[in-house]
Amino acid sequence: MLAHIIQNLPQVLIDGLTLGVVYAVVAIGYTMVYGILELINFAHGDVFMTGSFIGATVLFLFMGMGFLTALPALIVFLIVIIIAGIATGLLGVGIERVAYRPLRRKNAPKLIALITSIGISFVLEDSVRFIAELKTGNYIVTAPSIFNHRFTLSAHDWFPFFNNATFQGSFILVLAVTVVMLVSLDLFVNKTKWGMAMRAVAQDRDTASLMTINVNRVISVTFFIGSALGGATGVLFMIQYGTIDPYIGFILGIKAFTAAVLGGIGNIRGAMFGGVMLGLLEMFAAANLSIITHGAMGAEYKDVFAFIILILVLIFKPEGLFGKAVVEKV
Amino acid sequence: MTETTAKNFLKISKIDSYYGQIQALNGIDLYIDKGEIVTLIGSNGAGKSTTLKSISGQVRPKQGTISFDGIDITKKPAHQTALLGIAQVPEGRRIFPRLTVRENLQIGAFSEKNKTVVSERMERVFSYFPRLKERLSQKGGTMSGGEQQMLAIGRALMMKPKLLMLDEPSMGLAPIIVEQIFDIIKEMNKEGMTILLVEQNAYQALQIADRGYVIQTGQIVLDGKGEELMKNEQVREAYLA
Predict the structure, then answer these.
(1) Which of A170, A259, B49, B156 could form a disulfide with A27 if both were Cys (CB 3.0 to 4.6 A apart)?
(2) Containing domain of residue A215, as a range?
């Protein structure tokens, strides 16, 4: 049994990492907004989904214009991801303006904002579904594939106890782009003036405004960054997995939110770690559950496995792995 | 600087402010001339902090006007009032607990783009509070109460304000630290800073103030020179006993 689990390890690592970095970037969107507004923005998963559809739309447009064959795939990809990122960033800013800011101005209870975010989530899902069905006759869309070369990682040649693993070209792309996004976000938050303003607003909004910081603008910037990263990740998802529908943001959003909680909600590095960990655990479970339980539980129980880990972590460390227990001197 | 703005550098006319449905201020009149230390004393819940918050824009008055340096600031939001040169050291210090001491100071100079100016101002803060220099990379929340108060004042100075408003800087601090902080307030005033000091610790506040106002249930009930108020029977009974 153990030998079998070890044999599969390279493939589990590759698949888990792919999924994990996607969770990580989406988790950041949850954690940033929570850090600043103490709001769980349930619409964020659907911003991710909208990003994947915007990406697919641009890709189809390019295909129609013949760009797909004329331009190198990498250039096409960069243009698509940038357009989708900017568009979803603006979408996030718009959602905050229209739905959350008026509530904040009236000092509405946080629960109201939470319910509003669920409402926004439905609006996004149904709008995208409506448009997709109108244009293509089907709300499940299969994107034109780029980067679908298959590579083989000959792990077996180096370590005989491993099996070989295979991956698509897009795996490298997903990994590279998410790592770039994660590292630049971390630098932005910790090293720049606006990042510092963001952290100050998260810690004490009223006092930050006394420091000449325009709090509403910082909140807009936060939504822009979180949503743009989420939307760009939607494009990565679309390229990696090919088929998208208006409901991919729901489960993925819940999982990314779980990752954020796992790492300690409000903590950006925690969200990154939580995402990667959740992705790896999930893929490990998918590959091995049936072996471990002698067929009693199949791969479809992978989510149960992931959430059991979450529950265990929260029982023993309720603030999450990287969260600080909230005790502050006044 | 024209005579009028040096005279009523800050002028509050008949403001009413509310917290939700509750009226916290009822027709407050107050002025500060350039270079003065003015203190606002009164008991808990009298409206001292609300007065400061009305000036800084954290609370918007329903009635009346507030002008600063000749500009009407009644309806300005807090970050714009701060840009005009009004710094507030809030009650309970409110330093950013998970920013380092250095970052807490830097954020005070958020609107200043020139990095050399920022580091010059930081040196100036260290000349008042040398202890902060030893703690630059420590997180704000891990410092003692007195150090946090120094940091909160230092952070406000980083704005290079024209008017410095302090909300109960003595709260919760040991007498010797209070002494130090009041000495520094006096020193800053001597160097030309206009100061509005809100205190429950009336004795110490009146000692360093040019003038004082006594606030009770949202109204100014007395005002006058610092030493006059100290001799006043009513004040002695209510606040100095």
Answers:
(1) A259
(2) 22-145+167-244
